[in-house]
């Protein structure tokens, strides 16, 4: 009977297989970049061949990790590393699938007219892959500290391409529909690769530091409040919520109308009874707010966004309507009774929202 390798040797074998797998996927990404710069469909066919090799490597990694658990019963760092490698292999295999799918789309058609945007998006995605790769195999964890911020650049490019696709769809003919669907499909795959690279980075951080001492800076989700009376009501709502969610999400305030000069500090004495400190949020227009990782858009009052404004809001953003939160800031500033009625409704709404956000955080 052959002798069982040591834990150190088995884990080294797992990482070696994983590096080979990552090298194959990286070669596919590099080929896509070359195709966008200098189209050559012969190169793309090699990516399809690489995909079966990547699938075989994932199965070999799974078998090797199972052997580690069965024969070594690892603890501490070794246990975390083995678990992380299994997860990373799955993420990398999905990246490989997305790369192959992109190659198939490009083989069957021309490079999209939005070549420059796609190339920038692809290069940013490749950068994310290379950062996770170097952190994994060379131990330079500094490269993944800001990885979620870099992922935001890819998300912005995807939204830009989706808006272009929406405008193309307005032509409503078969050719324009095919163009738009291709843009949406390809940009979604690149965004998916970027997200999987972030998942990879999180597993590296987990293996090195464990759950209690993880150091990777995770992105905060964003909540945006919008009113149609200058932004002051939206600022008050955000102030009520701020204390309970400031460590979980970022808050933004926007308005559909002219930004008014009301000072939220005028409400300090009225807010003290609710143990609320007025927060000064920059009031923006819907076209200038940062929509990165926007979890929710909360509309305050009885109004609807125009079609152009609705197109700006990302599809992933959940839109919530609070029609009863509708009052003139001057009225509640000068009438404590009206402010109390407003604050009671607002407290109930924001407490419910804070609970939803907390549950979402627990699930993540």
Automatic annotation (TrEMBL):
InterPro entries: PhoU (IPR028366), PhoU-like_sf (IPR038078), PhoU_dom (IPR026022). It comes from the Bacteria. GO terms for biological process: intracellular phosphate ion homeostasis; negative regulation of phosphate metabolic process. Residues 18-105, 119-204 form the PhoU domain. It holds the Pfam family PhoU. Belongs to the PhoU family. This is PhoU domain-containing protein. It comes from Fluviispira sanaruensis.
């Amino acid at each position: 009977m052959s002798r069982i390798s040591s834990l150190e040797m088995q884990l080294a074998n797992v990482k070696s297989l994983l590096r080979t797998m990552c090298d194959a996927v990286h070669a596919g990404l590099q080929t896509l970049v070359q195709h966008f710069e200098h189209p050559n469909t012969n190169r793309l066919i090699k990516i399809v061949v690489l995909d079966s090799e990547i699938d075989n490597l994932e199965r070999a990694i799974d078998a090797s990790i199972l052997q580690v658990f069965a024969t070594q019963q690892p603890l501490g760092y070794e246990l975390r590393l083995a678990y992380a490698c299994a997860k990373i292999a799955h993420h990398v295999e999905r990246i490989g699938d997305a790369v192959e799918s992109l190659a198939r789309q490009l083989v069957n058609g021309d490079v999209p007219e939005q070549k420059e945007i796609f190339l920038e998006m692809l290069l940013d995605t490749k950068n994310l892959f290379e950062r996770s790769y170097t952190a994994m195999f060379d131990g330079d964890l500094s490269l993944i500290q800001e990885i979620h911020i870099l992922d935001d650049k890819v998300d912005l490019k995807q939204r830009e391409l989706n808006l272009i696709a929406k405008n193309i769809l307005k032509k409503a003919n078969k050719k324009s529909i095919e163009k738009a669907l291709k843009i949406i499909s390809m940009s979604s795959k690149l965004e998916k690769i970027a997200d999987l690279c972030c998942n990879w980075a999180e597993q590296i951080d987990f293996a090195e530091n464990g759950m209690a001492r993880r150091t990777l800076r995770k992105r905060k989700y964003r909540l945006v409040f919008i009113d149609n009376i200058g932004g002051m009501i939206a600022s008050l709502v955000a102030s009520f919520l701020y204390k309970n969610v400031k460590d979980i999400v970022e808050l933004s305030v926007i308005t559909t109308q002219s930004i008014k000069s009301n000072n939220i500090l005028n409400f300090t004495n009225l807010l003290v009874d609710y143990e609320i400190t007025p927060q000064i949020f920059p009031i923006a227009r819907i076209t200038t707010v940062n929509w990165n990782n926007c979890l929710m858009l909360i509309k305050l009052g009885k109004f609807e966004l125009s079609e152009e404004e609705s197109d700006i809001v990302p599809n992933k953003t959940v839109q919530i309507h609070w029609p009863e939160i509708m009052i003139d800031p001057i009225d509640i500033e000068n009438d404590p009774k009206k402010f109390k009625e407003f604050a009671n409704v607002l407290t109930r709404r924001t407490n419910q929202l804070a609970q939803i956000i907390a549950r979402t955080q627990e699930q993540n």
